[in-house]
Amino acid sequence: MSLRVGIVGISGFGGGEALRLIAGHPSFDLVYAAGDGSAGRRLVDRFPGVAPRLADLVIERWVPESLPPLDVLLASLPTGTSAAALARVPPEVKIVDLGGDHRYAEGWTYGLADIWPDRIVGRSRIANPGCFPAAALTALAPLLAEGLIEPGHIVIDGKTGISGAGRGGGDSRFGYAESNENLVPYGLLQHVHMPEIAGTIEQLSGGSAAGLVFTPHLVPMTRGLLATIYCRGRATTAQCLAAARRFYAGRAFIRVTDAPPQTKWATGSNLAFVSYAADPGRNLVMAMGVVDNLGKGAAGQAVQNANLICCLPEGTGLEGAPVWP
Amino acid sequence: MSLRVGIVGISGFGGGEALRLIAGHPSFDLVYAAGDGSAGRRLVDRFPGVAPRLADLVIERWVPESLPPLDVLLASLPTGTSAAALARVPPEVKIVDLGGDHRYAEGWTYGLADIWPDRIVGRSRIANPGCFPAAALTALAPLLAEGLIEPGHIVIDGKTGISGAGRGGGDSRFGYAESNENLVPYGLLQHVHMPEIAGTIEQLSGGSAAGLVFTPHLVPMTRGLLATIYCRGRATTAQCLAAARRFYAGRAFIRVTDAPPQTKWATGSNLAFVSYAADPGRNLVMAMGVVDNLGKGAAGQAVQNANLICCLPEGTGLEGAPVWP
Amino acid sequence: MSLRVGIVGISGFGGGEALRLIAGHPSFDLVYAAGDGSAGRRLVDRFPGVAPRLADLVIERWVPESLPPLDVLLASLPTGTSAAALARVPPEVKIVDLGGDHRYAEGWTYGLADIWPDRIVGRSRIANPGCFPAAALTALAPLLAEGLIEPGHIVIDGKTGISGAGRGGGDSRFGYAESNENLVPYGLLQHVHMPEIAGTIEQLSGGSAAGLVFTPHLVPMTRGLLATIYCRGRATTAQCLAAARRFYAGRAFIRVTDAPPQTKWATGSNLAFVSYAADPGRNLVMAMGVVDNLGKGAAGQAVQNANLICCLPEGTGLEGAPVWP
Amino acid sequence: MSLRVGIVGISGFGGGEALRLIAGHPSFDLVYAAGDGSAGRRLVDRFPGVAPRLADLVIERWVPESLPPLDVLLASLPTGTSAAALARVPPEVKIVDLGGDHRYAEGWTYGLADIWPDRIVGRSRIANPGCFPAAALTALAPLLAEGLIEPGHIVIDGKTGISGAGRGGGDSRFGYAESNENLVPYGLLQHVHMPEIAGTIEQLSGGSAAGLVFTPHLVPMTRGLLATIYCRGRATTAQCLAAARRFYAGRAFIRVTDAPPQTKWATGSNLAFVSYAADPGRNLVMAMGVVDNLGKGAAGQAVQNANLICCLPEGTGLEGAPVWP
């Protein structure tokens, strides 16, 4: 039996990746695509490689009240614009919101699918985590759960590929010629992902994340995200790795590696890679998390959440191996 | 029922892409992987994102006489080294050779799977086409078959991503710092792919390809290949497009597009895109072909050939949409 | 003695490169910078590495009638917008127009500085050649001048870095995520540079360029441009190289090389590299030309033209070697 | 009057950049170039854009005892190989060692040219700083000198372009296809640059750098280096910026910026950019330093040091503005 899925925000990078995953999903059937930037065009006009059976689906203008019958809606709208619009979607349509408006919002479940799958199963309103939180929290969770680091002194140095800035209006700062060969720190001390990271650290540890520091950087690559995290703690590297292997035992999409992870390991997949390096003498525990910012960092996790809310096996349609090189 | 597949040359880019496709293939079971560069290591040590069920498969040193029982062997060995070695493989093991040694060689079928699938079904020894021929011949075939261009005056200007140069021994010319921001013509008037292109043009047209010109260029990108082809002919653009749509009617992996194709349309897929632009007044027909040099240009077509020789539906395991962006 | 120079279009890539070259020029003094996108900001706000003596120069809104006293104006405005505006500049201000409006226009000298320097010396209105013509014509000129190729059958396959598309309004097609790993043919059979290429071929050869074909491609790199050119002729490779060495004897910025040129050889410089490969048996002469599209292809040649019209040594301020890697 | 300069290690990236700078230097005359990888070839064969007057200089095999008469030798040899060889250079030849063997070694002056120029003037043996230390220490020095941060708790998250890994033997890990779209942490807790960073922190602050953490990352770009640094301190952002402006008042190559610096600002230049962001409430001071790893991070600073030891103005030949875009 197929479930009917819609995607809104199909013109953006998150929406496009959702399309790729839904098109290959054995239990989901794409019946609706909306995106103001491409409204009126067929899917094949925007995505020349789309499967022939989807080629002629016409992209619609996004009107929440006039959706076709849907089981699930994946919404990839700019942060700040989704809350009002999604409130108008009929309650019987389940929603996974890839945007930022509903993270830690009332009535919405925060969808860290690899850490809290049980909270998500069967729910109706899921706030998909941000890309940086997906990587950082996946790496931190085992340490916080076992009390191996101090929750109040965490420094996250994040690096993301430029698709993380969104397709937007084509801001020339994100143009090829200006972004290539350029590494750019931004959003210092105030990035929009701070609250969901802090909130989750507190949930996982029971302590305050008051000293959290998070610095994102744009890296000249299309996809890929690495969080390099500096914590205080007296655990050894081996203890951290063992904690992570316990924490993620049996979880399909998390890989705990001895070597520091590289972003290319995850390209095009829903995988997250975590590793650790510690020096008890310096009261230092380093954690590293790698994801594809459009995979586990956006559409991959969104499809995993969609599977969970529809009570399907969480990995359905997400088994594709990373693309290398 | 699963067929037993082996890959030799797993350390290289073609072998790695074959691994990705076989790992996701519903009817093939990877039971053997060999590669001198990685012998003795587990698959997961070379490919950190490989599926857990394949993680512990140990990469072996390549000894043609001591293979495990196999139905199909995909061989991705450097051109010049595969002929002697593959001659020692037992005859009951079917082979798809991604290397260049057997193209248009006696006893081997040239595996242009989208053009001559019937020649391939059930065969035992397939020479997989080179990456440039895969793109150029796919674009040219409809024109040659309908006599719309002169076979004796074809100029192919080819551009490939750097993975097309192979992983090799790490030649510093292909190092990131020297290849980035660099566009390099090479192999002028004498590239190794010339004979198979000329031979196939002659087969398709019945005429001589004596005036063939082919100039490859290395482009600073990992994957992707475009052949821009200049021919003599009096057909219109519409006639060329119509010829291609007739020629490829019902073929799953060929897309005929009105707009000139871009390499990113094919990334990570087995698709080929072809388009045309003609000016009868200048006696000019331009043909364009785009493939992922590791997809349709190597491992994708190899798996398509493996499907055909095993009498499986040719698209099995190859339905994945391109990765964008 | 210093000459007073102004730049209009300072926000764009051509204007920015002009700024870099003028800032290091021993005889030119930048006294005026205009650009609507940055008007009201200081130069240092747009170009953080600008020399301290220029840091506080305020970028003005471009009003042709209210210029400060200037000896030379370098204009880097979008094609289609410069003709009307530059007509309003006082006649005593010499102009080098980097845009396309005045190429082969009455009253303007076409500034192919390495081929026709004598036509430029002391003039007042120079139309700077386009980037593709700069590369292609430099490679073709010696062959045309000596009658080694047929002017009526020339095929130019051009490849440029993405800065060649201009900084524009940040069209998302030129965004990093969509341009990276993408090779894009465009402007088929009708690119805006066709007329100046054809016109110059005719001047150089005395024959008709009626059969000219020109296909530009966008390559995922910031700078660099290669024209691969296919001609009919019976000359040998050695004859072509010898012709080029004769033609460019004593010319400072042209390098004739035995090996096919690579775009990185020219990065950041005013150099052009040309080479040839011929096969008399196939009636084939290949010519190749490499430039930095912002150097010899735009601002470098513009400063060379500015030197010539001011009767300075043409290489003044342009001696910097290419940046490698 | 020209001073006679030699470069050993001309085949590498540091040596190549030194060549570019020396070729444009008004007081230095390149009379000797050595490099085992290119011995016997002319400079123009390795550097096709080199100035004609240097084109025919033959690259020699490196034999320290048989140098021509030289005033200064710039040595860009792999760390671990320069100490023994440079000990054999006659004492009357002044040396700037771009390699790592002599940093904080007896008899050698550590050449942080923008911070301690007076220590360098007239000296004979200079150890050029590493690329990461050049960026990190430039950013930290003002804070340490004024006691605004604790020297014992500094975390440096460093990111460099891939030319920083050297040209080496063409290790395939640094090949284009494997490095592109890949961000790689390495050398965790033990990078070779740690001692010179720690030693200099201690000199500048008078305190112990015992808690220093330094994590380098390889970023998919050719040039550029950013150090993002996390410190403990109660200063405000404004206080940090003011301290830096005091510390570097009148220094030609340091730019203190309000906005966080981007690597492209420095490309091809000898500039360093520093900025700061602080939150006294979190006991946090962030410092950022940007350099071109081959400019201020290697050859640019080496030429600055060569100027100082020859008692020339330190900026001679280094005034070129960054290349943008």
TrEMBL record, chains A, B, C, D:
UniProt record similarity statement: Belongs to the NAGSA dehydrogenase family. Type 1 subfamily.
Origin superkingdom: Bacteria
Segments forming domain Semialdehyde dehydrogenase NAD-binding: 4-123
Matches recorded under SUPFAM superfamilies: Glyceraldehyde-3-phosphate dehydrogenase-like, C-terminal domain (SSF55347), NAD(P)-binding Rossmann-fold domains (SSF51735)
InterPro entries recorded: AGPR, AGPR_dimerisation_dom, AGPR_type-1, NAD(P)-bd_dom_sf, Semialdehyde_DH_NAD-bd
HAMAP family in the record: ArgC_type1 (MF_00150)
Protein task: Catalyzes the NADPH-dependent reduction of N-acetyl-5-glutamyl phosphate to yield N-acetyl-L-glutamate 5-semialdehyde.
EC primary class: oxidoreductase
Catalyses which reaction(s): N-acetyl-L-glutamate 5-semialdehyde + phosphate + NADP(+) = N-acetyl-L-glutamyl 5-phosphate + NADPH + H(+)
Active site: C131
Organism, as annotated: Methylobacterium aquaticum
EC number: 1.2.1.38
Gene designation: argC
UniProt keyword list: Amino-acid biosynthesis, Arginine biosynthesis, Cytoplasm, NADP, Oxidoreductase
GO terms under biological process: L-arginine biosynthetic process
Main location: cytoplasm
Places the protein is found: Cytoplasm
Protein name: N-acetyl-gamma-glutamyl-phosphate reductase
One Gene Ontology MF term: NAD binding
CC annotations in GO: cytoplasm
Pathway annotation: Amino-acid biosynthesis; L-arginine biosynthesis; N(2)-acetyl-L-ornithine from L-glutamate: step 3/4
